[in-house]
Amino acid sequence: MKAAAIMCHHCGRRNCVRRHGRARSGLQRYYCSGCSRTFQSSYIYQGNEGNILRQIEALHAKGKNQMDICRSLGITAMVLDRYLYLISIENKTR
Ligand SMILES: [Zn+2]
C-alpha cells in the first residue's frame, strides 16, 4: 500500500507533514513542520470545502472571473486564491 503524500492545508508543502495523533472525530491529524500548524486529513476533499472546490471549478469552467466566483459563493478573494492554489496542486498530482 502506497501512502499518498499529505499536503499541508495552510502552506501547501508536502514534504514536512507528519502524523499528529487523532482528533475526537476519528480523523487523522497532521502537523506541518514547515509552518508549525496542525490540520486534519481529507477535509479538502469532502464536506463543505470539497463542495466549494467543485463549485469553483464549475464556475471557472463557465468562464466566470474571480470576482463573480467570490460573489456567488460568498467568499473573499483571499479565500478564493487559496482554493485556486489547492485546485492547481490537485490537478498537477493527478
Ligand atoms: Zn504548512
Topology (elements, then pairings):
Blueprint: E1 17-22, E2 28-32, E3 37-40, H1 47-61, H2 66-73, H3 77-92
Antiparallel strand pairs: 1-2, 2-3
Helix pairs in contact: 1-3
The chain binds zinc ion.
Residues 8, 10-11, 13, 32, 34-35, 37 line the site of zinc ion.
Description:
- It comes from Limnobaculum xujianqingii.
- This is IS1 family transposase.
- This protein has 2 domains: 1-42, no CATH class; 47-92.
- The chain has 3 helices and 3 strands, in the order E-E-E-H-H-H.
- The chain has helices at 47-61, 66-73, 77-92, and strands at 17-22, 28-32, 37-40.
- A 3-stranded antiparallel β-sheet has the order 1-2-3, with no helix packed on it.
- Helix 1 crosses helix 3 (77-92).
- The longest helix is centred in the C-terminal third of the chain and has 16 residues, at 77-92.
- It starts with 16 loop residues before the first strand and ends with a helix.
- The relative contact order is 0.13.
- The model has no long low-confidence stretch (mean pLDDT 80).
- Zinc ion binds next to loops.
